[in-house]
Amino acid sequence: MPLLTSLLVLIVAARLLGQIFQRFGQPSIVGEMLAGVLLGPSVFNLIHANTALSSISEFAVFLVVLSAGLEMNFKDIFNALCGPGIVIAVLGFILPFAAGLLVGVVFQFDVMRTVFLGLCVSITALPVTVRILQSFQLLDSDIARYSVATAIFNDVAALLVLGVILNLPEQPSLRAVAVSVFGTGWKLVALGAVILGFNWQLEQLPRRGIHIEKVSEKLVELVGDEALFGILVLFVLVFASISEMLGFHFVIGAFFGALLIDRKFFLASRYHELDHTLRSITEGFLGPVFFAYLGLEFQVETLRPVGFVLVVLVVSALSKIVAGWLGGLAIQLPQAHALGIGIILNGRGVMELVIASIAYERGFINQGLFSTLVLMGVVTTMMTPLMFRKWILPKMEQ
């Protein structure tokens, strides 16, 4: 099927199923992912994941993260990570990672397959997290702040371990491991320094008499309304490029770049225009493509053995939910909020697929394990909004 036809069919099916699920009181992303599963090789075999669709999906991820970052505040996320929220972040990574390692040991996997299984279980996909929270209109809640902060920590930690593994020689020694850890660690420090340094510079501008909202209005007068949107995208692209250049996923840099853009940089009317434009593009077009593409990645015929697949699904879901719940209770959050964080952290989606695909391409895992990891990403992402709506929302509304 030609690319444009595939894209059109994918969009129509994703939007249609998304609307149907919304009519029954469920988030649209569940229907969007199901559309990909139905159209992909697992059911009707009409559309296959390919490089072109993958590129469009990555652009969709970029805009979804950009839209979410605009709605959130840098200080809230930073404080969540530096304060008691670090407890949730650490537990949210270590417990699932250990659970994944244990499954690998029980099924007698080699070291590399065991490590990659642990990494994929420990992931929480930032784009999926923010999209689910957006769908429930909870981006300004405690659940959102701690969940997003934990997702960032988990993704960075997993990518840090991935960077160490990929930099190892074929015959790793203790010295090679130390060099790889140091090389990946300084890149993480460099990324953090760029983000914190730029945030400090932005905070200093008003004290120097520079009002960014006036500068943005001048640009609109000179070039037109579209200029502001273009500059916004370019600004975030710079951070995404720096993140990718340092060896991390572009999503991390894009999200922090969007977080740095404060509402006070625009007049209120301009901010709402930007927000409306982004939402129209992401929710109406590119967002459904992204979630449907996740469904395309699933291939049912390679899932063997069934017992192992079921164990991975159960362990991955339970370890994340329990880790978030325990972390929330440890910092004295209400029971519903703690459990809500655990459920939100269970959505893996794109980040887990990134690590799984890299491991598969490099020969660290086989097709069977890759398909199991894809299934885990799809199932955990689909079950997250359903569980949250059923068990958490009613308690929050009381």
How would you sum up this structure, described in words?
With 398 residues, the chain is an all-alpha fold. It has one domain (3-397): Up-down Bundle (Na+/H+ antiporter like fold), CATH 1.20.1530.20. The chain has helices at 3-23, 28-39, 51-71, 74-82, 85-106, 111-122, 126-135, 142-166, 174-204, 212-223, 225-245, 250-259, 268-296, 306-330, 335-345, 349-361, 367-391, 393-397. α4 crosses α8 (142-166) and α14 packs antiparallel against α15. The longest helix has 31 residues, at 174-204. The radius of gyration is 21 Å and the shape is globular. The chain starts with a helix and ends with a helix. The mean pLDDT is 86.
Give unreliable regions as ranges: none
The quaternary state of the protein chains shown equals single chain
Task: State the name of the first-level CATH class.
Answer: Mainly Alpha
Supply the number of helical segments.
Answer: 18
- CATH fold name, please? Na+/H+ antiporter like fold
Global outline: globular
Main beta sheet: none
Based on helices, strands and strand pairing, what is the structural class? mainly alpha
CATH architecture: Up-down Bundle
Task: Measure the end-to-end span.
Answer: 50 Å
Summed up, the domain count is 1
User: What string, H for helix and E for strand, traces the elements in order?
Assistant: HHHHHHHHHHHHHHHHHH
